[in-house]
Amino acid sequence: MNGKTAFVLLSGVLSGSLCACVQPPDAAAPAAPPPPPVAAAAPGAAPAPVVEPPPSDRWVSIQGATCERLLELSPDDRAAASLFYTGYQAARFGSRAINVAAIPDAEAWAESYCAEHPGRPAVEAFRQAYRQTLRR
User: Fold this and answer.
1) pLDDT tens digits, residue range 119-128?
2) Which residues, at least 6 apart from 26, have a Cβ–Cβ distance to it below 8 Å?
3) What's the CA gap between 74 and 24, in Å, rounded?
4) Any idea what the Cα angle at residue 10 is, between residues 7 and 12, rounded to 5°?
5) Listed range (34-38, 65-69, 70-74, 77-81) with the worst mean pLDDT
6) Residue 135 and residue 105 in contact, taking contact as beta carbons nearer than 8 Å
7) How deeply is 14 buried, as exposed, middle or buried, from its count of CB atoms within 10 A (0-12, 13-18, 19+)?
8) What DSSP string describes 25-82?
9) Neighbours of 67 (CB within 10 A)
10) What distances in angstroms separate CA 108 from CA 19, 25, 71, 92, 128, one per listed residue?
11) What is the per-residue pLDDT for 92?
């Protein structure tokens, strides 16, 4: 019976010590101070750029996109499209390797072609560029 009494007393002491650790919030404690006011933007400061979400479910015809539309793209989008079309042509030609150092030359060749032939398909520009610069 001493074992049972010791267990009950020990569990009571432990639960009492756990309860003593958690203190209820003081009702008379002052509230947190309000955040400092936001200073007005400096007169010459540019507004933060607005980030637009990427378009969803936008389909582009691989063989129907024109050179004119390619040249209208932003530099980042044009670079992405150029890499896509270079890889597309590599696959069409059955290439198993590509000279990475020649990719900028192929892109420049395709952009030059597109500037001369804006109504032609962009895929044609990259086909010609691939044949001229990457396929050797």
Assistant:
1) 999 999 999 9
2) none
3) 59
4) 110
5) 34-38
6) no
7) exposed
8) PPTTSPPPPPPPPPPPPPTTPPPPPPPPPPPSS----TTT-BHHHHHHS-HHHHHHHH
9) 23
10) 74, 69, 12, 20, 12
11) 94
The SS3 of residue 22 is: coil
DSSP string, 87-103: HHHHHHTT-S---GGGH
Beta carbons of 23 and 49 less than 8 angstroms apart: no
Instruction: Determine contact, residues 38/85, Cβ cutoff 8 Å.
Output: no
Q: Provide the pLDDT confidence category of residue 130 given band limits of 50, 70 and 90.
A: very high
Structure tokens at 44: 């010459």
Amino acid at 107: E
